[in-house]
């Protein structure tokens, strides 16, 4: 996925797997909006404005983000807005992003962010 507004955009999707993609030169590399029970793994997400974004209502939950290379994104490597919860983010490699990972922090209930490299 290259040179578009969204590399991958899922709105209100459930049980989707995004795996083994090269996602470069987009506004948002991957954007999940009000989507739940998804898996994002083994992707190379680079040279986007925002590499990976989870947004929407409290329906943005139970997503696993693991083993991704998230690098050289100009604004954010990972952006979590205020209305998502119970997401697990682990074993990702963040490097050379404007901000490697940003969590709005106001609604992340019971989610885990651990074991990542910067």
Architecture overview:
- There is one protein chain.
- 0% of the residues lie in helices and 50% in strands.
- The chain has strands at 6-11, 17-19, 22-24, 28-33, 39-41, 44-46, 50-55, 60-61, 64-66, 69-71, 76-80, 84-85, 88-90, 93-95, 99-103, 112-114.
- It has a five-stranded parallel β-sheet with strand order 1-4-7-11-15, with no helix packed on it. A five-stranded parallel β-sheet has the order 2-5-9-13-16, with no helix packed on it. A four-stranded parallel β-sheet has the order 3-6-10-14, with no helix packed on it.
- 36% of the residues are buried.
- The model has no long low-confidence stretch (mean pLDDT 86).
H/E element order: EEEEEEEEEEEEEEEE
Helix content: under 10%
* Principal-axes shape call: globular
Task: Give me the count of strands.
Answer: 16
CA-based gyration radius: 12 Å
What ranges have pLDDT less than 50 throughout 5 or more consecutive residues? none
Oligomer designation: single chain
The secondary structure category is mainly beta
Q: Note the total helix count.
A: 0
Would you tell me the overall average pLDDT?
Answer: 86
**Strand order in space, largest sheet:** 1-4-7-11-15
Quick one: biggest sheet?
A: 5 strands, parallel
First-to-last CA distance = 24 Å
How many distinct domains? 1
Beta content: over 45%
């Amino acid at each position: 996925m290259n040179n578009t507004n969204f590399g991958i955009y899922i709105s209100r999707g459930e049980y989707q797997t995004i795996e083994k993609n090269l996602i470069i030169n987009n506004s948002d590399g991957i954007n999940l909006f009000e989507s739940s029970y998804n898996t994002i793994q083994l992707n190379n997400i680079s040279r986007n404005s925002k590499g990976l974004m989870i947004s929407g209502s409290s329906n943005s939950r139970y997503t696993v983000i693991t083993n991704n290379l998230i690098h050289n994104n100009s604004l954010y490597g990972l952006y979590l807005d205020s209305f998502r919860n119970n997401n697990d983010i682990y074993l990702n490699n963040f490097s050379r992003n404007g901000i490697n990972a940003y969590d709005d922090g106001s609604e992340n209930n019971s989610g885990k962010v651990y074991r990542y490299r910067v």
